[in-house]
Amino acid sequence: MKTRTVERTRLVPHTIDGRTEMVLDRYTVDVPRPPRDWDRIVLTGVTAAAASIGVASIVWSTASIGDLLARSVPEPAAYAAAAVFDLVWLSCMALEWLARYDQARAALPRRAGYVALAVAMAAVGAHGWISGEIAIGFIGAAVSGLAKAMWTVVLRHHAKPLDPLTQQWVDKQRAEAGGRLAMVAVRRELTRAEQAVTAEHAALSGASPDADPERPESRADRPDDEETPAVTGPMTIADAVRTALSSGITDPDAVLRYVRTVADANAKEASVERYIRSLRTPA
């Protein structure tokens, strides 16, 4: 049996001058070497071969279609456009791979990939026909077809089909996660809309955009902004207290502020409270 050496660590007591501490000790052990996973090695090799075939297909198609298009447009533009043909169906294969656990979603990129492949093969065949090399045109078109077939087989081997019940469970989980993700964008959009409404209202009313008319601050936090009755002329302290109470101002501090505003700036708190008690006491 083959083995391999593995380094491990452990805590061991170590004493110096009568003081013991737990220290880290490194040691090696021989453990059985697992057998080679030939299935994984073969699959990795096949995937690498498919990747190489895909690159070769892109190079061949680009050279062939680029030479065809260069008859009418400058070469840089012709070869840049030629690279699109095989890149499209390869991109569709990548999307098909991403949707390997959802056959319904994978159907569209699969069909689109076949359409793009047919267009690429027709372009390569047209280049051979125009160049007078029909056989080379057919063989060159087969390069893209073989690359597509190779990638299809590899992806089918990697894909793990799900039974109907498991597929429904996966779809529900994906829909729930997608709903939460969608709500992030929706909330962001609603926030922008609310900010726009607030800014528009501020522009029309001349108020500060930070002041939300729908959310006024508590009057207890803004005593200076409390509504006060209109001043009709000079008042005595008693008249001012009577006017404040009749206007619905019941807080003694608010009444005192009103009296000092319209009647006597030096009005005493005790005098105002006495007038309040006398006016509240029924005769």
Explained architecture:
This protein is mainly alpha-helical. It folds into 3 domains: 3-32, no CATH class; 38-158; 223-280, no CATH class. Helices cover 65% and strands 10% of the residues. The chain contains 8 helices and 2 strands, in the order ββαααααααα. The protein has helices spanning 38-69, 75-98, 103-130, 134-158, 164-205, 237-246, 252-262, 269-280, and strands at 3-16, 19-32. The protein has a two-stranded antiparallel ribbon with strand order 1-2. The longest helix is centred in the middle third of the chain and has 42 residues, at 164-205. The N and C termini lie far apart (113 Å). The model is unreliable at 211-226 (pLDDT under 50).
Write the layout of secondary structure elements.
Blueprint: E1 3-16, E2 19-32, H1 38-69, H2 75-98, H3 103-130, H4 134-158, H5 164-205, H6 237-246, H7 252-262, H8 269-280
Antiparallel strand pairs: 1-2
Number of domains: 3
Number of helices: 8
Strand order of the largest sheet: 1-2
Low-confidence stretches: 211-226
Main beta sheet: 2 strands, antiparallel
Radius of gyration over alpha carbons? 42 Å
Q: How much beta, percentage-wise? A: 5-15%
Inertia-based shape: elongated
Number of strands: 2
H-E string? EEHHHHHHHH
- Percent helix: 55-70%
Average per-residue pLDDT, rounded, comes to: 83
